[in-house]
Write a structure and sequence with these properties.
By secondary structure, the chain is an alpha/beta fold. It has two domains: 2-157 and 355-367, 3-Layer(aba) Sandwich (Rossmann fold); 161-352, Glycogen Phosphorylase B (Rossmann fold, 3-Layer(aba) Sandwich), CATH 3.40.50.2000. The chain has helices at 11-25, 39-46, 57-62, 64-73, 87-96, 117-124, 134-143, 169-178, 200-213, 235-247, 263-269, 284-291, 304-307, 321-332, 335-352, 355-367, and strands at residues 2-4, 32-35, 52-54, 78-81, 101-106, 128-131, 151-153, 186-191, 219-224, 254-258, 272-275, 295-299, 313-316. Helix 6 links the parallel strand 5 and strand 6. The chain is elongated and about 70 Å long. The mean pLDDT is 96. It comes from Billgrantia pellis. InterPro entries: Glyco_trans_1 (IPR001296), Glyco_trans_4-like_N (IPR028098). Keywords: Glycosyltransferase, Transferase.
Protein backbone atom coordinates (compact mmCIF):
# COMPACT_ATOMS: atom_id res chain seq x y z
CA UNK A 1 0.00 0.00 0.00
CA UNK A 2 1.31 3.42 -1.01
CA UNK A 3 0.49 6.06 1.59
CA UNK A 4 0.42 9.68 0.44
CA UNK A 5 -1.73 11.93 2.62
CA UNK A 6 -0.97 15.13 0.74
CA UNK A 7 -3.31 17.73 -0.70
CA UNK A 8 -0.54 19.16 -2.89
CA UNK A 9 0.50 18.22 -6.40
CA UNK A 10 4.09 17.70 -7.44
CA UNK A 11 6.52 14.93 -8.24
CA UNK A 12 6.12 13.35 -4.80
CA UNK A 13 2.34 13.22 -5.11
CA UNK A 14 2.47 11.93 -8.70
CA UNK A 15 4.82 9.07 -7.87
CA UNK A 16 2.34 6.39 -6.67
CA UNK A 17 0.11 6.72 -9.75
CA UNK A 18 3.15 6.73 -12.03
CA UNK A 19 4.37 3.35 -10.79
CA UNK A 20 1.01 1.60 -10.24
CA UNK A 21 0.64 0.35 -13.84
CA UNK A 22 4.17 -1.08 -13.87
CA UNK A 23 3.64 -2.72 -10.46
CA UNK A 24 0.59 -4.44 -11.92
CA UNK A 25 2.52 -5.46 -15.04
CA UNK A 26 5.14 -7.08 -12.84
CA UNK A 27 2.55 -9.12 -10.92
CA UNK A 28 2.03 -6.99 -7.81
CA UNK A 29 -1.31 -5.89 -6.36
CA UNK A 30 -0.92 -2.20 -5.48
CA UNK A 31 -3.19 -0.40 -3.04
CA UNK A 32 -3.31 3.23 -1.97
CA UNK A 33 -4.22 5.44 0.97
CA UNK A 34 -4.92 9.11 0.24
CA UNK A 35 -6.92 12.11 1.40
CA UNK A 36 -10.54 12.24 0.28
CA UNK A 37 -11.00 14.49 -2.74
CA UNK A 38 -7.26 14.99 -3.26
CA UNK A 39 -5.50 14.92 -6.61
CA UNK A 40 -3.46 12.02 -5.24
CA UNK A 41 -6.66 9.99 -4.75
CA UNK A 42 -7.90 10.95 -8.22
CA UNK A 43 -4.57 10.02 -9.80
CA UNK A 44 -4.59 6.60 -8.11
CA UNK A 45 -8.10 5.97 -9.41
CA UNK A 46 -7.04 7.02 -12.91
CA UNK A 47 -4.10 4.61 -12.66
CA UNK A 48 -6.50 1.73 -12.04
CA UNK A 49 -6.94 1.29 -8.28
CA UNK A 50 -9.61 2.47 -5.86
CA UNK A 51 -7.67 3.97 -2.93
CA UNK A 52 -8.78 3.84 0.65
CA UNK A 53 -9.40 7.47 1.68
CA UNK A 54 -9.46 9.43 4.91
CA UNK A 55 -10.72 12.98 5.52
CA UNK A 56 -7.46 14.32 7.02
CA UNK A 57 -4.08 13.27 8.37
CA UNK A 58 -5.38 13.54 11.91
CA UNK A 59 -8.44 11.42 11.15
CA UNK A 60 -6.17 8.81 9.60
CA UNK A 61 -4.61 8.24 13.03
CA UNK A 62 -8.07 8.00 14.59
CA UNK A 63 -9.13 5.48 11.91
CA UNK A 64 -6.14 3.21 12.39
CA UNK A 65 -8.45 0.28 13.21
CA UNK A 66 -10.24 0.69 9.87
CA UNK A 67 -6.91 0.85 8.04
CA UNK A 68 -5.59 -2.26 9.82
CA UNK A 69 -8.78 -4.12 8.85
CA UNK A 70 -8.20 -3.08 5.22
CA UNK A 71 -4.62 -4.37 5.40
CA UNK A 72 -5.77 -7.71 6.80
CA UNK A 73 -8.64 -8.05 4.30
CA UNK A 74 -6.29 -7.56 1.34
CA UNK A 75 -3.30 -9.40 2.84
CA UNK A 76 -1.14 -6.28 2.45
CA UNK A 77 2.36 -6.86 3.81
CA UNK A 78 4.22 -3.78 2.53
CA UNK A 79 3.63 -0.10 3.34
CA UNK A 80 5.41 2.63 1.38
CA UNK A 81 5.26 6.25 2.60
CA UNK A 82 6.21 9.30 0.53
CA UNK A 83 5.83 12.20 2.97
CA UNK A 84 7.77 12.32 6.22
CA UNK A 85 4.59 13.36 8.06
CA UNK A 86 2.94 10.11 6.93
CA UNK A 87 5.54 8.07 8.81
CA UNK A 88 3.59 8.67 12.02
CA UNK A 89 0.81 6.55 10.60
CA UNK A 90 3.12 4.08 8.89
CA UNK A 91 5.17 3.50 12.05
CA UNK A 92 2.02 3.13 14.13
CA UNK A 93 0.62 0.52 11.73
CA UNK A 94 3.93 -1.36 11.73
CA UNK A 95 3.96 -1.28 15.54
CA UNK A 96 0.40 -2.57 15.85
CA UNK A 97 0.87 -5.23 13.20
CA UNK A 98 4.33 -6.78 13.55
CA UNK A 99 5.56 -8.25 10.31
CA UNK A 100 4.55 -5.32 8.13
CA UNK A 101 7.43 -3.96 6.09
CA UNK A 102 7.63 -0.17 6.07
CA UNK A 103 9.44 1.75 3.31
CA UNK A 104 9.97 5.47 2.92
CA UNK A 105 11.19 7.47 -0.08
CA UNK A 106 12.77 10.83 0.70
CA UNK A 107 11.60 12.69 -2.40
CA UNK A 108 12.55 16.14 -1.14
CA UNK A 109 16.04 15.78 0.26
CA UNK A 110 16.16 16.26 4.02
CA UNK A 111 17.69 19.57 5.17
CA UNK A 112 17.93 19.15 8.95
CA UNK A 113 18.78 16.36 11.39
CA UNK A 114 15.94 14.08 12.52
CA UNK A 115 17.40 12.23 15.48
CA UNK A 116 15.16 13.22 18.38
CA UNK A 117 13.14 10.64 20.34
CA UNK A 118 10.10 10.76 18.03
CA UNK A 119 12.13 10.37 14.84
CA UNK A 120 14.17 7.55 16.37
CA UNK A 121 10.89 5.73 17.07
CA UNK A 122 9.35 6.40 13.64
CA UNK A 123 12.43 5.74 11.52
CA UNK A 124 13.34 2.80 13.73
CA UNK A 125 10.38 0.97 12.18
CA UNK A 126 11.46 1.70 8.60
CA UNK A 127 12.69 -1.39 6.77
CA UNK A 128 14.41 0.64 4.05
CA UNK A 129 14.76 4.33 3.29
CA UNK A 130 15.18 5.19 -0.39
CA UNK A 131 17.31 8.15 -1.43
CA UNK A 132 16.54 9.27 -5.00
CA UNK A 133 20.12 10.34 -5.75
CA UNK A 134 23.62 10.07 -4.33
CA UNK A 135 23.38 13.75 -3.37
CA UNK A 136 20.33 13.12 -1.20
CA UNK A 137 21.77 9.89 0.21
CA UNK A 138 24.72 11.80 1.61
CA UNK A 139 22.30 14.12 3.39
CA UNK A 140 20.15 11.19 4.50
CA UNK A 141 23.11 9.42 6.06
CA UNK A 142 23.85 12.50 8.17
CA UNK A 143 20.25 13.35 9.04
CA UNK A 144 18.40 10.12 9.77
CA UNK A 145 18.83 7.77 12.76
CA UNK A 146 19.44 4.77 10.52
CA UNK A 147 22.53 2.66 9.78
CA UNK A 148 23.97 3.06 6.25
CA UNK A 149 22.79 -0.38 5.09
CA UNK A 150 19.16 0.67 5.57
CA UNK A 151 19.52 3.74 3.33
CA UNK A 152 19.64 2.84 -0.36
CA UNK A 153 20.02 5.02 -3.43
CA UNK A 154 17.21 4.29 -5.89
CA UNK A 155 16.95 6.59 -8.88
CA UNK A 156 13.44 7.40 -10.05
CA UNK A 157 12.21 6.01 -13.35
CA UNK A 158 9.88 7.15 -16.11
CA UNK A 159 7.73 5.51 -18.74
CA UNK A 160 9.94 6.04 -21.77
CA UNK A 161 7.34 5.35 -24.46
CA UNK A 162 5.52 8.73 -24.43
CA UNK A 163 8.79 10.56 -25.02
CA UNK A 164 9.54 8.90 -28.36
CA UNK A 165 8.91 11.32 -31.27
CA UNK A 166 5.34 11.19 -32.59
CA UNK A 167 4.85 14.44 -34.53
CA UNK A 168 5.53 14.86 -38.21
CA UNK A 169 7.20 18.08 -39.36
CA UNK A 170 3.89 19.84 -40.10
CA UNK A 171 2.48 19.04 -36.65
CA UNK A 172 5.73 20.10 -34.99
CA UNK A 173 5.73 23.40 -36.88
CA UNK A 174 2.10 24.00 -35.88
CA UNK A 175 2.95 23.39 -32.22
CA UNK A 176 5.90 25.79 -32.43
CA UNK A 177 3.59 28.46 -33.85
CA UNK A 178 1.14 27.80 -31.00
CA UNK A 179 4.00 28.42 -28.58
CA UNK A 180 4.86 31.68 -30.31
CA UNK A 181 8.15 30.44 -31.74
CA UNK A 182 8.93 32.30 -35.00
CA UNK A 183 9.98 30.23 -38.00
CA UNK A 184 13.73 29.65 -38.02
CA UNK A 185 14.21 30.52 -34.34
CA UNK A 186 15.88 28.25 -31.82
CA UNK A 187 13.24 27.29 -29.24
CA UNK A 188 14.69 27.27 -25.72
CA UNK A 189 12.35 25.87 -23.07
CA UNK A 190 12.26 25.71 -19.31
CA UNK A 191 9.63 23.25 -18.00
CA UNK A 192 8.66 22.96 -14.34
CA UNK A 193 6.69 24.54 -11.53
CA UNK A 194 6.94 28.32 -11.44
CA UNK A 195 8.22 28.59 -7.89
CA UNK A 196 11.31 29.98 -6.22
CA UNK A 197 14.29 27.67 -6.42
CA UNK A 198 13.54 26.46 -9.95
CA UNK A 199 15.88 29.02 -11.48
CA UNK A 200 13.58 30.93 -13.83
CA UNK A 201 15.04 34.29 -12.80
CA UNK A 202 18.60 33.27 -13.65
CA UNK A 203 17.41 31.79 -16.95
CA UNK A 204 15.62 35.00 -17.94
CA UNK A 205 18.68 37.05 -17.04
CA UNK A 206 20.74 34.66 -19.16
CA UNK A 207 18.42 35.17 -22.12
CA UNK A 208 18.72 38.93 -21.68
CA UNK A 209 22.53 38.58 -21.83
CA UNK A 210 22.14 36.40 -24.92
CA UNK A 211 20.05 39.08 -26.59
CA UNK A 212 22.64 41.75 -25.78
CA UNK A 213 25.68 39.73 -26.83
CA UNK A 214 24.32 38.18 -30.04
CA UNK A 215 21.71 40.49 -31.57
CA UNK A 216 21.66 38.47 -34.81
CA UNK A 217 20.93 35.13 -33.10
CA UNK A 218 17.23 34.18 -33.43
CA UNK A 219 15.86 32.45 -30.36
CA UNK A 220 12.58 32.25 -28.48
CA UNK A 221 12.08 31.26 -24.85
CA UNK A 222 9.18 29.11 -23.62
CA UNK A 223 8.32 28.88 -19.90
CA UNK A 224 6.23 25.75 -19.34
CA UNK A 225 4.37 25.43 -16.05
CA UNK A 226 1.10 26.25 -14.33
CA UNK A 227 0.36 29.91 -13.73
CA UNK A 228 -1.97 29.44 -10.75
CA UNK A 229 -1.78 27.97 -7.26
CA UNK A 230 -4.24 25.25 -8.31
CA UNK A 231 -1.65 24.15 -10.86
CA UNK A 232 1.12 24.01 -8.25
CA UNK A 233 2.72 27.41 -8.90
CA UNK A 234 3.38 30.44 -6.72
CA UNK A 235 1.13 33.16 -8.17
CA UNK A 236 3.10 35.99 -6.55
CA UNK A 237 6.28 34.58 -8.05
CA UNK A 238 4.61 34.18 -11.45
CA UNK A 239 3.65 37.85 -11.38
CA UNK A 240 7.23 38.78 -10.51
CA UNK A 241 8.50 36.77 -13.50
CA UNK A 242 6.09 38.60 -15.79
CA UNK A 243 7.41 41.91 -14.46
CA UNK A 244 10.99 40.71 -14.95
CA UNK A 245 10.28 39.80 -18.58
CA UNK A 246 8.87 43.28 -19.16
CA UNK A 247 11.78 44.99 -17.40
CA UNK A 248 14.26 43.04 -19.53
CA UNK A 249 12.42 43.98 -22.71
CA UNK A 250 11.75 40.34 -23.61
CA UNK A 251 7.95 40.41 -23.98
CA UNK A 252 8.16 39.47 -27.67
CA UNK A 253 10.69 36.71 -27.07
CA UNK A 254 9.18 34.83 -24.11
CA UNK A 255 6.01 32.74 -24.04
CA UNK A 256 4.32 31.72 -20.78
CA UNK A 257 2.84 28.44 -21.99
CA UNK A 258 1.04 27.59 -18.73
CA UNK A 259 0.38 24.04 -17.56
CA UNK A 260 0.53 21.54 -20.41
CA UNK A 261 -0.54 17.90 -20.11
CA UNK A 262 1.24 17.19 -23.42
CA UNK A 263 4.78 17.84 -22.19
CA UNK A 264 6.33 15.01 -24.26
CA UNK A 265 4.99 16.67 -27.40
CA UNK A 266 6.22 20.09 -26.28
CA UNK A 267 9.70 18.63 -25.97
CA UNK A 268 9.48 17.76 -29.68
CA UNK A 269 8.89 21.44 -30.44
CA UNK A 270 11.91 22.61 -28.44
CA UNK A 271 15.54 22.68 -29.55
CA UNK A 272 17.09 23.11 -26.08
CA UNK A 273 15.68 22.24 -22.65
CA UNK A 274 16.99 24.13 -19.61
CA UNK A 275 16.72 23.01 -15.97
CA UNK A 276 18.42 25.66 -13.80
CA UNK A 277 17.00 24.46 -10.45
CA UNK A 278 19.47 25.18 -7.67
CA UNK A 279 19.10 22.05 -5.57
CA UNK A 280 17.17 19.26 -7.27
CA UNK A 281 16.89 16.10 -5.18
CA UNK A 282 16.75 14.12 -8.43
CA UNK A 283 15.84 16.03 -11.60
CA UNK A 284 12.87 14.24 -13.15
CA UNK A 285 12.46 16.95 -15.80
CA UNK A 286 16.06 16.40 -16.86
CA UNK A 287 15.41 12.69 -17.38
CA UNK A 288 12.18 13.38 -19.28
CA UNK A 289 13.99 15.77 -21.62
CA UNK A 290 16.79 13.22 -22.08
CA UNK A 291 14.21 10.54 -22.94
CA UNK A 292 12.81 12.92 -25.55
CA UNK A 293 16.24 13.12 -27.14
CA UNK A 294 16.75 16.81 -26.37
CA UNK A 295 19.95 18.74 -25.78
CA UNK A 296 19.74 19.59 -22.08
CA UNK A 297 21.45 22.27 -20.00
CA UNK A 298 21.17 21.57 -16.29
CA UNK A 299 22.35 23.23 -13.11
CA UNK A 300 25.73 22.03 -11.88
CA UNK A 301 24.30 21.52 -8.38
CA UNK A 302 22.14 19.06 -6.48
CA UNK A 303 21.62 15.72 -8.21
CA UNK A 304 21.59 16.98 -11.80
CA UNK A 305 25.33 16.34 -12.39
CA UNK A 306 24.62 12.65 -11.63
CA UNK A 307 22.29 12.58 -14.64
CA UNK A 308 24.16 14.70 -17.16
CA UNK A 309 27.76 14.81 -18.28
CA UNK A 310 29.48 16.44 -21.24
CA UNK A 311 28.69 13.42 -23.39
CA UNK A 312 24.94 13.95 -23.23
CA UNK A 313 24.36 17.52 -22.03
CA UNK A 314 25.81 20.64 -20.51
CA UNK A 315 25.98 22.03 -16.97
CA UNK A 316 25.91 25.67 -15.85
CA UNK A 317 26.11 27.54 -12.55
CA UNK A 318 22.52 28.18 -11.38
CA UNK A 319 23.61 31.53 -9.96
CA UNK A 320 25.32 32.78 -13.13
CA UNK A 321 23.23 34.30 -15.96
CA UNK A 322 26.44 34.64 -17.96
CA UNK A 323 27.12 30.90 -17.76
CA UNK A 324 23.59 30.17 -18.98
CA UNK A 325 23.90 32.66 -21.82
CA UNK A 326 27.15 31.03 -22.94
CA UNK A 327 25.74 27.51 -22.78
CA UNK A 328 22.55 28.46 -24.62
CA UNK A 329 24.50 30.24 -27.34
CA UNK A 330 26.91 27.32 -27.82
CA UNK A 331 24.07 24.83 -28.29
CA UNK A 332 21.83 27.25 -30.13
CA UNK A 333 24.39 27.88 -32.87
CA UNK A 334 25.30 24.21 -33.44
CA UNK A 335 22.41 22.00 -34.50
CA UNK A 336 24.79 19.08 -35.08
CA UNK A 337 25.97 19.26 -31.48
CA UNK A 338 22.37 19.46 -30.25
CA UNK A 339 21.51 16.37 -32.26
CA UNK A 340 24.51 14.37 -30.96
CA UNK A 341 23.84 15.34 -27.36
CA UNK A 342 20.15 14.49 -27.72
CA UNK A 343 20.90 11.04 -29.13
CA UNK A 344 23.35 10.32 -26.30
CA UNK A 345 20.87 11.63 -23.72
CA UNK A 346 18.11 9.36 -25.04
CA UNK A 347 20.44 6.35 -24.88
CA UNK A 348 21.38 7.12 -21.28
CA UNK A 349 17.74 7.57 -20.25
CA UNK A 350 16.84 4.20 -21.78
CA UNK A 351 19.81 2.52 -20.09
CA UNK A 352 19.41 3.98 -16.60
CA UNK A 353 16.04 5.57 -15.98
CA UNK A 354 13.27 3.40 -17.40
CA UNK A 355 10.24 2.68 -15.23
CA UNK A 356 10.50 -1.10 -15.62
CA UNK A 357 14.02 -1.17 -14.20
CA UNK A 358 13.03 1.18 -11.37
CA UNK A 359 10.08 -0.98 -10.33
CA UNK A 360 12.13 -4.18 -10.54
CA UNK A 361 14.67 -2.67 -8.14
CA UNK A 362 11.88 -1.38 -5.89
CA UNK A 363 10.02 -4.69 -5.69
CA UNK A 364 13.30 -6.47 -5.11
CA UNK A 365 13.56 -4.41 -1.93
CA UNK A 366 9.91 -5.14 -1.07
CA UNK A 367 10.49 -8.87 -1.41
CA UNK A 368 13.87 -8.92 0.32
CA UNK A 369 14.62 -9.75 3.91
CA UNK A 370 13.88 -7.02 6.42
Amino acid sequence: MHICLSDGWGGLEMYPARIIPELQCQGWEPHGLALSGSRVADSMASAGIAPLTVPSRGRALLQVGRILAHLRRHAIEVLHCHKSSDLRLGALLATLRPGLKLFFTDHMGVTRPKKDLYHRWAYGRVTRLFSISEATRERNLAAFPLPPERIRRLYLGIDLAPYSPQLDSAACDALRRELGVPAGSVAIGLPGRLTRGKGQRTWLEGLARLSQWTPGFDWHGVLIGGLTAAEGSDEVYVASLERQVAALGLEERITFAGFRPDLPRLFEALDIVCVPSRNEAFGLTVVEAMAAGKAVIGADSGAIPELLDTGCGRLADPESPEAWAQAMEALGRDDGLRRRLGQAARARAVERFGMSAHVRALTGEYAGDA
